[in-house]
Design a protein that fits this description.
single chain, globular, about 10% strand, about 280 residues, alpha/beta
């Protein structure tokens, strides 16, 4: 199928590269559905398929689809994904990277998290430099990019207006993140949180599936670290060990243009995660 043949938003099962969903993938229409469908997903492929068709947050659905129809002038001739952007990467990851949400003209356009925007350019270049990605760039779903022992997810799976999800939207989306953390628990050793929003979401998700989070809540900072041991409960955690959560400033244009985040700083965080994870 040619690019011109795709509708925006892209209907599931119509051939978009790496689309995890099919026409019969169950769709969450409200927050209670997210809880049920996330909990019953038996593996990452089933979970990401369900994430990618979620319609539980009306404001986010309206916004992501409006952006996909109206498009930015630079991408006027390209189809937009216009759906939730699911987790992506290694199916048995040693490192989990958590971001905030897809960019309106990045992941919401390409269908892959951190792909097609400036933040992603920084992220994938850094991962490649430290040996965690096959290519220094990620331009579109179905390109030659592969993550090596790494999986990337977002706390909120839909592009939000002004890049600011509402608390009710964060909470509705949370079961997708918690279940992805739980399914990855047998192999994940290190988690990198890109920004304070991702840091808080990662702590909350790990606590929800049975990891022990210190009190008071650990503070975010670039290079901040906290070890999260597994608790006594949690079926998936029987195979899991302690996870190291590492904070990093988000590779946003605001942070990279001002020098708040440098290539050396970002590489240092991923090198630390790689070493801890034994990659």
């Amino acid at each position: 199928m040619t690019e011109a043949a795709y509708a925006s938003p892209v209907p599931p099962g119509t051939g978009w590269p790496d689309d995890p969903a099919a026409s019969d993938t169950p769709v969450a229409q409200r927050a209670a559905d997210v809880v049920r469908l996330a909990r019953s997903a038996t593996d990452l492929h089933e979970l990401t398929a369900r994430q990618s068709v979620c319609r539980a947050c009306p404001r986010l659905v309206e916004w992501r689809e409006q952006v996909a129809r109206e498009r930015r002038r630079a991408y006027a001739d390209e189809p937009y994904w216009g759906r939730p952007v699911p987790g992506w990467g290694d199916d048995a990851p040693r490192i989990l990277i958590v971001g905030l949400a897809p960019a309106a003209h990045g992941g919401n356009r390409t269908g892959r998290i951190f792909t097609g925007d400036r933040s992603g350019d920084w992220l994938f270049a850094s991962l490649h430099r430290v040996g965690l990605a096959a290519s220094p760039t990620s331009t579109s779903a179905g390109d030659d990019q592969r993550l090596l022992g790494v999986r990337v997810v977002a706390a909120v799976r839909c592009a939000p207006p002004a890049n600011k999800p509402l608390p009710v939207e964060r909470d509705a989306c949370f079961p997708w993140l918690a279940r992805e953390v739980e399914l990855g628990a047998p192999t994940v050793s290190a988690v990198v949180a890109l920004g304070s929003y991702a840091w808080d979401s990662a702590l909350r998700a790990h606590a929800a599936v049975g990891y022990v989070v210190p009190r008071p809540k650990p503070k975010f900072g670039h290079g901040a670290e906290v070890e999260l041991p597994r608790g006594a409960e949690g079926e998936r955690l029987r195979e899991a060990g302690t996870v190291l959560l590492i904070g990093s400033y988000h590779p946003s244009q605001q942070n990279t243009f001002t020098g708040k985040l440098t290539e050396t700083m970002l590489d240092g965080v991923f090198t630390r995660a790689k070493t801890y994870a034994g990659l």
